[in-house]
Amino acid sequence: MGRLDGKVALVTGGSSGIGKSIALLYAKEGADVVINSRSEEVLKEVCKLNEKKITYVVGDITQDEVVKKLADYVKTKFGKLDILVNNAGWCPYLPLKEMKIIDYDKVFNLDVRALVNVTIECLPLILKAKGNILNISSISASHRFLNVSLYTGAKAAVENFTRCWALELAKDGVRVNAIAPGAIETNIWYVANLSKEGAEKYKKEAEKMIPCGRFGKPEEVANVALFLVSDEASYVTGSIYNVDGGAGAP
To answer: Is 151 marked active-site?
Structure first.
């Protein structure tokens, strides 16, 4: 028996990195999982890893029609939603001196607006199931780093939404938590606006600040994501769990 037998989960940004690891673990534990991202080719590759339990909806969730399509797909195919994981996000390395307002729009549209929009659209199903909302934040929300102020600001918003929603929805039997990963070995380092050489240099600098002396693995975040939506965490809501090798301890 899996810990998520009979559950239905939706994971945004589920085609790679942390989202992919969460989706695969949830499916392994018995959940039917719907993943989303903009790349259909990559989504198909993830689904091949567990064709019986994982399906996908392709599209950019900064677009309202895609968010509605995603929620409608879950409702039509499964009739319920027990777990919503708001994972999709983007982290540009961008000093204020080089920043344009369009950069703000791009980060906040995905990291904040889309997260809120997906939650609003899926909330009726979550309420009916007395389910879980899990937001993926970052330790940068509480530990500031140079040249990532847009991401820091966006994730601070995510954490405050998490706490407020936990207070609002507790009486409805819905739990809302967040995970704040530190430096995790994913392709997020290479899809920002840095060159490959610049990304490697930034990674080496980041690694020096980790007490455990290494980057985390997506699977290590997924393990915490499983706990937080399972019955073992039935008394946990409004919490932000750091998964960061101790980087957020100072």
So the answer is: yes
99-129, pLDDT tens digit by residue? Answer: 999 999 999 999 999 999 999 999 999 999 9
**Dist. CA 149–CA 54, nearest whole Å:** 35
The residue annotated as part of the active site, out of 26, 56, 93, 151, is 151
Instruction: Please state, in angstroms and rounded to a whole number, the distance separating the CA atoms of residues 78 and 84.
Output: 14
Spatial CB neighbours of 193, under 8 Å, sequence gap ≥ 6? 92, 93, 94
Which fold is adopted by the domain 8-243?
Rossmann fold (3.40.50)
**CA separation for the pair 81, 38 (Å, rounded):** 22
Each residue's pLDDT tens digit, 16-63: 999 999 999 999 999 999 999 999 999 999 999 999 999 999 999 999
Sign of the dihedral through C-alpha 68, 74, 75, 77: positive
**What is the domain partition of the chain in residue ranges?**
8-243
